[in-house]
Design brief:
- By secondary structure, the protein is an alpha+beta fold.
- It folds into 2 domains: 83 residues; 236 residues, BirA Bifunctional Protein, domain 2, CATH 3.30.930.10.
- 34% of the residues lie in helices and 21% in strands.
- A hairpin with a 2-residue loop joins strand 9 and strand 10.
- Helix 2 packs antiparallel against helix 4.
- The longest helix has 24 residues.
- The two termini are 74 Å apart.
- One of its GO terms (biological process) is phenylalanyl-tRNA aminoacylation.
């Protein structure tokens, strides 16, 4: 019997349980009502009376051994996984938590929105899948207008025409459709154009457009608004210039350049050795655009502008390839951890 008890102890010691079910199987086999421990305890009746006291102690130790082994197996299984409670040294430093960051485009977008909010501009958003009227027609671009060739469009449906918006001017259209002047909004969002992907262009990018309509709004108001934006975003030492341009939804129209932040205006590949970098287009809202939304152009005037967030981000953080924004390379993204 003593040899049998030793054998049972060796079996229990070798028993491993990685699940709660395995630990329960151990309990049933050794400690259950028909288990081995109870069967061994029942052998006390066959022991001579003068040896029962000593043998009883051995049986009690055997039972305690089985119960202790069961407790160890039970604690080693938590939710079906081996427990590491006994292997943790709580005096050691904890595992550091990796801290993420916002995407550089999100950082710059938030900065632009914050600057214009201080000037009283509200934020307006709209759908990325647009109809032809809000994207083109309302912006003074009829079907045969040559300006449509300026924007290679991803069409989803032809008749009626549904497309991926080519600019966030469609959001301006929806605001003018639903709201009466005074109107002062900026429209951030993603836009799509069928362009060859390169270091300087992509088939999708992000825009922020602005619209201000009220009585007696002038081109001087437009210039001062954009001067303030540039100084807040890039610093007061940055130079600004306006160049006449053409946009079907504004008249007169102008493109705004700033002195190149990469070379300081001396000339480089980014500014094409001119010392200037274009960052946005702007102009006074065309009277026909106002009329499309029953806004009296004799009473109200307004200005609009639009910029690419990628271009502003490129200048602010000296990024030389637009493809880096969408490649999800953590080596690139980790550089902006301290910029949040």
């Amino acid at each position: 019997m003593m040899q049998q008890i030793d054998n049972y102890k060796q079996e229990m010691t070798a028993f491993e349980a990685t699940t709660a079910e395995a630990a329960e199987a151990f309990r049933i086999k050794y400690l259950g009502t028909k288990g081995i421990v109870k069967a061994v305890m029942g052998e006390i009746k066959n022991v001579p009376n003068d040896q029962k006291k000593a043998f009883g102690q051995i049986l009690n130790e055997f039972k305690q051994f089985a119960e202790a082994r069961y407790e160890v197996l039970k604690e080693s299984t938590v939710n079906g996984q081996p427990s590491t409670v006994n292997s943790i040294d709580i005096s050691l430093p904890g595992t550091p938590v990796a801290i993420g960051t916002r995407h550089p485009l999100s950082i710059v977008r938030n900065q632009i929105v914050s600057i214009f909010k201080r000037l009283g501009f509200a934020v307006a958003e709209g759908p990325e899948i647009e109809d032809d009227w809000h994207n083109f027609g309302a912006m003074n671009l009829p079907e045969d207008h040559p300006a449509r060739d300026m924007q290679d469009t991803f069409y989803i449906n032809q008749h009626p025409a549904w497309l991926l918006r080519t600019h966030t001017s469609s959001v301006q259209a929806r605001v003018m459709e639903a709201q009466r002047p005074p109107i002062r909004v900026i429209c951030p969002g993603r836009v799509y154009r069928n362009e060859t992907i390169s270091a300087r262009a992509h088939c999708f990018f992000h825009q922020i457009e602005g619209l201000y309509i009220d009585e007696n709004v002038s081109f001087a108001d437009l210039k001062q608004t954009l001067y303030f934006f540039v100084q807040e975003m890039f610093g007061k030492e940055v130079k600004v210039r306006f160049r006449p341009s053409y946009f079907p939804f504004t008249e007169p129209s102008a493109e705004m350049d700033i002195s190149c932040l990469i070379c300081g205006g001396s000339g480089c590949t980014v500014c094409k050795h001119t010392g200037w970098v274009e960052i946005l287009g702007s102009g006074m809202v065309h009277p026909k655009v106002l009329q499309n939304f029953d806004i009296d152009p004799e009473k109200y005037t307004g200005f609009a502008f639009g910029m690419g967030v990628e271009r502003v981000c490129q200048l602010k953080y000296r990024i030389n390839d637009l493809r880096l924004y969408s490649q999800n390379d953590v080596r690139f993204l980790r550089q902006f951890t301290g910029a949040v």
